[in-house]
Amino acid sequence: MNSPLARALHSAGVGIIDVAARLDVDPKTVQRWMTGRMPYPRHRAALVRITGWQPHDLWPTLPRPTEQSAIADEVRIVYPHRSAVPTDVWARLLSRAEHEIDVLAYSALFLAEDVSVPALLRKKARSGVRVRIALGDPDGAQVASRGDEERVGAGMSVRIRTALVSLQPLAAEPGIMLRLHDTVLYNSLCRADDEMLVNSHIYGRPAAHAPVLHLKSTSDAGMVATHTESFERVWGSAKPSKL
User: Fold this and answer.
1) 212 and 103 housed in the same domain
2) How many domains would you assign to the chain?
3) pLDDT (tens digit per residue) in 133-183
4) How far, CA to CA in Å, does 207 sit from each of 75, 142, 187?
């Protein structure tokens, strides 16, 4: 295996088993990458961090969009606030996932209350899609702070516990992981492979009143990659839900 990726991993002193463990994939998948198969964008970004090589050094055949066109192409639509997003957009985004679904929020109650979403997540997991859901810890300091900012006090914790009534049972499903975080969130995220809905957070206003960006990745250094890396950091510090 003399591909650029194989050489980069060798130079970094990282083996196939280690890469597979870090990226939570099968070692055979890493072997296929090293013999020429193109990794999924999220995995490409991780391999760039592991090796220290630039994306086009690892994968010379990657397209090279100009910076301006990449930014313009990545933003599909901007909604002035979450309540302006058609209700079926979230489910349609999740339904397009073939590999990964990530949800990051304080409560995501609007998703949990959509009866089609838990069933859709279960169906996707059974088809081989990895599903990760990170909600705020209802007993955490950051949830309490967010509740104070929105002037709802303990209401924020109540929303999370209500969402968990619908979402917690999913954690028993192979392929679905549910964790609780105690992190300051500047955005809530809903990602399906290389497509993402990003709900910004505004001080003193509920997330439903804040803008939403619908993004689709066009490069390994774009907005989707940045938000995905942020999710990974929160996920790494979050704890399994036992509520």
Assistant:
1) yes
2) 2
3) 999 999 999 999 999 999 899 999 999 999 999 999 999 999 999 999 999
4) 20, 15, 9
